Amino acid sequence: MSERNEKKEKSRNDVDEEFDEELDEELELEVEENISISSFIFEWANAFMVALVVVVLLLTFVWRQVTVSGTSMTDTLNDGDRLIISSFMYKPQYGDIVVVSHGQNYSEPIIKRVIATEGQSLSINYDTEEVSVDGVILDEPYIKGKTIKLRNPLEIPDKIPEGYVFVMGDNRDGSLDSRSTEIGLIPVENIIGKAELRIYPFNKFGSVYN
C-alpha cells in the first residue's frame, strides 16, 4: 500500500474513532438524562404520596369538613355554610361552636354553642332571658331572638356532670338544644369536633368566631 493510501486510511480511521467517541458520549448523556428524569419522577411521585397520606390522616383524625343544615345558629352560621372542624386533643370550652353526633332522643348531627361545661353551675331566667354560669350573667352578643323555654324542658342539674356539656343554638327561639330533653346534656364523647373555619360561601371565608 502506498504511503498516500496509508495516510488516507489512517485519516479515515481517526474520523471513525472520533465519531464513535462522540456517539458514546451522546449515548452516555442520553442515559444519564433518562436516569435523571426517572429519578425526578420517582422523587416527585414519592413526595406526592407522602403528602396525600398526610392529608388523608389530617382529614380523618384532625380536620373534617361539614355543612351546616338548618337555622339554629343564625346569624352566626347559615344553612349551607361549609365549615372545617377540628377534633385533635379537643376539650370543650365556653363559647366553642361544636358539631354533635346526636342528642338524647335526636339521631341527627347538630351544631350548637357550648354554654357550660362539667362542674359548672348553670341557670336560665326565662323571664329576663338571662343565662348565668357560676353565678355570672353571660354577655352573649352572638344570640338572635329570645331565650325561651322549649317543649319537654330539661331540669338543669345543680352542676353539669363530669363528661357532659350544655349547648344552645345562637338562634335562641329557633333552636332545639340542651334546654329540651330531646337533646339534653351532651356527652363530650358525642362531640365530633369544634368549628374552626368557614370555607363557604367564599365571601365569608374565615374564622367563625369573628
User: Kindly state the mean pLDDT as a whole number?
Assistant: 84
The ordered H/E elements are HEEEEEEEEEEE
Helix content: 25-40%
Termini Cα gap: 99 Å
Overall 3D shape: elongated
**Share in β-strands:** 15-25%
Any idea what the CATH architecture of the largest domain is? Ribbon
Q: What's the helix count?
A: 1
The total domain count is: 2
The CATH superfamily of the largest domain turns out to be Umud Fragment, subunit A
Radius of gyration: 34 Å
Say what the CATH topology of the largest domain is.
Umud Fragment, subunit A
Instruction: Identify low-pLDDT runs.
Output: 3-16
Let me know the largest β-sheet.
8 strands, antiparallel
Structural class: alpha+beta
Describe this structure in words.
The protein has 210 residues and is an alpha+beta fold. It folds into two domains: 1-61; 65-207, Umud Fragment, subunit A, CATH 2.10.109.10. It has one helix at residues 3-61, and strands at residues 63-67, 82-86, 97-100, 110-117, 122-125, 130-133, 136-137, 164-168, 186-187, 191-200, 206-207. The strands form two sheets. Strands 1, 2, 3, 4, 8, 9, 10 and 11 form an eight-stranded antiparallel β-sheet that branches. A three-stranded antiparallel β-sheet has the order 5-6-7, with no helix packed on it. A hairpin with a 5-residue loop joins β10 and β11 (206-207). The radius of gyration is 34 Å and the shape is elongated. The protein starts with a helix and ends with a strand.
Tell me the layout of helices and strands.
Layout lengths: L2 H59 L1 E5 L14 E5 L10 E4 L9 E8 L4 E4 L4 E4 L2 E2 L26 E5 L17 E2 L3 E10 L5 E2 L3
Antiparallel strand pairs: 1-2, 2-10, 3-4, 3-10, 4-8, 5-6, 6-7, 8-9, 10-11
